[in-house]
Amino acid sequence: MDYTAHLDTALEALHAEDRYRVFMDIVRQKGQFPRAKWNKPDGTVQDIAVWCGNDYLGMGQNEVVLEAMREALEVAGAGSGGTRNISGTTAYHNALEAEIADLHQKEDALVFTSAYIANDATLSTLPKLFPGLVIFSDELNHASMIEGLRRGRCEKHIWRHNDVAHLRELLEAADPNAPKLIAFESVYSMDGDFGPLAEVCALAEEFGALTYLDEVHAVGMYGPRGGGVSEQLGLAGKIDIINGTLGKAYGVMGGYIAASRKMVDAVRSYAPGFIFTTSLPPAVLAGATASIRYLKEHQELRDQQQEAAKVLKLRLKAMGVPVMDSPSHIVPVHVGNPAKCKMLSDHLLNDFGIYVQPINYPTVPRGTERLRFTPSPVHDGPMMDELVHALDSLWQQCELARKPIAC
């Protein structure tokens, strides 16, 4: 067996479809976000502005967060020292889980090393806790949710994206006596649209189903305290399990679920992805706790971010750049061709110092390739001017179609 030949074939297929991914070696500049340094392959360094990051509010640079991390590092050292069951549970873990539970008005919370692991571990464990469980999953759910459902080895049904009529059909056809769970998201990050929370909660109540809501792109960003779309709509109490991340709006690292005390206790007791993983270090936990506390009381950052996204959408639409309809803070620009998507990204980076990663298949369906911009409160006016002018120039240079402006 020529193993190297098989690897060559797999990698060449990605290159042939213009979807081979190149890692960007960048160094964020403390206190200057979204400015960063790009360590180029030729050994030179270029100043760039990051327009595609998930540190939506710049909390990874917030001094309150950094100071909390420095203090924890001095007190507790670098690592946690073990799994949560064996010496790896600290006062920092307990404080963060209490802060998360309060954020979502739940009895308890459980912190994982990432939101991916939180989704995978929880959704694959729930069928063990509820024998015969039937899960209904939105077709555009995160890869981590899909993986958790796959590993759970239970009956599952995929409902068309945000199509509650289709969800109802599937629920009606299911065994009325079987335990059920509806898994969906509040903000779908590639299109930037919202999930139908109220309608799903109503169906869950009607059919006696549990609800599992992924809020990773919404926590910190929506609601009067940053509790997500479920908090903003006053529906957190109707969601049984909320999944969130500490690595996007909160600017640190980690993921979690928030739920009833018994649900959390059962998941932590049965989920291998939690049981056998070294826990997060105290400095990360302290930074996340400080970030959540800070954003509970700083609505102005959410307002500034929403305004920045609104302005960018309006300016791009005014030029005929095909901004995809997105009611959220995410600004996706349709390109529709992987080669041209990468070409745009390369030109923006090399010619203008603007970093935005091309989004190609399999992250999005073929033919819907796009650039995904995430303006933050610290992307100032001159930076936005640079981006808008660069896109205007490149759209013409790359011979891309303009979208007529609606009258």
Please provide the ordered H/E string of secondary-structure elements: HEEEHHEHEHEHEEEHEHEEHHHHEHEEEH
- What portion of the residues fall into strands of 2 or more residues? 15-25%
**Total strands:** 16
What form results from the Cα inertia axes? Answer: globular
- Going across the biggest sheet, name each strand in turn: 4-12-11-10-7-5-6
Q: Which class best fits the helix and strand makeup?
A: alpha/beta
Query: Mean pLDDT, nearest integer?
Result: 95
Helix-residue proportion: 40-55%
Helical element count? 14
Radius of gyration: 22 Å
Biggest sheet statistics? 7 strands, mixed
Give the distance, in angstroms, between the N- and C-terminal Cα atoms: 63 Å
Could you explain the architecture of this structure?
The mean pLDDT is 95. The chain has helices at residues 3-16, 63-76, 91-104, 115-129, 143-152, 164-173, 197-207, 229-232, 261-270, 272-275, 282-296, 299-318, 338-352, 381-397, and strands spanning 26-28, 35-39, 45-50, 108-112, 134-138, 155-159, 180-185, 187-188, 193-194, 210-214, 241-245, 255-259, 331-334, 354-355, 358-359, 370-373. 43% of the residues lie in helices and 16% in strands. The chain is globular. With 407 residues, it is α/β, with parallel strands linked by helices.
Write the layout of secondary structure elements.
Blueprint: H1 3-16, E1 26-28, E2 35-39, E3 45-50, H2 63-76, H3 91-104, E4 108-112, H4 115-129, E5 134-138, H5 143-152, E6 155-159, H6 164-173, E7 180-185, E8 187-188, E9 193-194, H7 197-207, E10 210-214, H8 229-232, E11 241-245, E12 255-259, H9 261-270, H10 272-275, H11 282-296, H12 299-318, E13 331-334, H13 338-352, E14 354-355, E15 358-359, E16 370-373, H14 381-397
Helix pairs in contact: 2-11, 3-11, 4-5, 6-7, 13-14
